[in-house]
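@channel sequence for tomorrow's demo:
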Amino acid sequence: LTQSFGKALVFGEPSEIFRRVWVPLEGSLDEESAYLAAKLAALESLRGGFTTVCEAGTRMEPDVGVVADATGDAGIRCVLGMICNDLRPDGATEPHDAVIARAQAHLDRYAHHGLVPPSLAVSIPEAATPATLAAVSQLCRSRGAVFQTHVNEHLAAVERSLERHGRRPLERLFDDGVLGPHCLLAHATLLTPSEIVMLRDSDAAVSYNPVASAWKGNAVADALTFAAHGIRFGIGTDATRGDGFRLMDAAETAQRLTFGARTGDSSAGGGWTWLDHATAAGADAAGLRGVTGAIAPGLAADYLLVDLDVPEVAPSWDLEWELVRLTGRDQILAVVVAGRPRLWRGWPVDWDARQLIDDVRRRAKKVVVDAPVQIVHPTSTEHRKASRTTDARE
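structure tokens (generated this afternoon):
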């Protein structure tokens, strides 16, 4: 949620943008800019039809309470992760007891917060010692919280893990007893058959992030195989798309192009698979089963009001497929979270989003310019100019 100032900076960039863009950018945020960035991301998510966001942890200096304030003021539910890495980039190690004490304090702080269930995270397995990985995971298990980490997304990360530990990231988590039903693993794209079995046997959940795969990944998670084996997964974004309908379309398209096309599977899960994993199964993966994810007695009143009286779904023959492939966020009339209307026709009903946008424009440029961000490729405008220069020489 604190990456929204740098959205277009990562377009067309090589895979590991977290090292060159996100970590430097987040490290340059102060309390005001962090609040603005998180609230902007929350607004984008609400406009895209999300009633819940799952924050995987930010590496900024300000306290994560800034993110809780921003999402609460925006009106969206937020599973709030706090980073518990104990291995620094320079090779030094944070004191184990201090990391665990901060983790416990975070869980205590938000234990009874209605819209902000707490979560703990390690950004990637190689950013923590085995003892801290196991302890943080066990703490989440014992407290009913979600443990989050990114695994098997890029070839570089898989190879680093093999060089340092002799095991792939998911293998390491499984062998060290970290995995379990309380785990939410982002990406999980580069999996061997045995690792898929590890996922199934541990009952860990996956955030299937199809747009991240398209924009900067090395592979697409085999969500159809996950579904066939009963592996729990939700459709996630990894901060790459705040539009839920386009995300469902991307989830189905990625499976069709990478797995369905080569096996002649024209259904590629059917429309209902992607709708379910964007709603009820997504809530389950985020640790919110029994709280939200469906319209049913006893659950929170988190829902969308969608206009279906539009040309795109007239006539209607298969609504679930139509929601995946034909529906857009412009059809979202209202977004309701915890029984309260949050948005009407794309704009908040109880706070000034236009003022937020003005504030973001005022602060974001300086933050990005001052951050030690490294962009490998030029912007499209610069690239176009360079291409014309090359053409003229030829």
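heads up for whoever presents: The longest helix spans residues 244-263.
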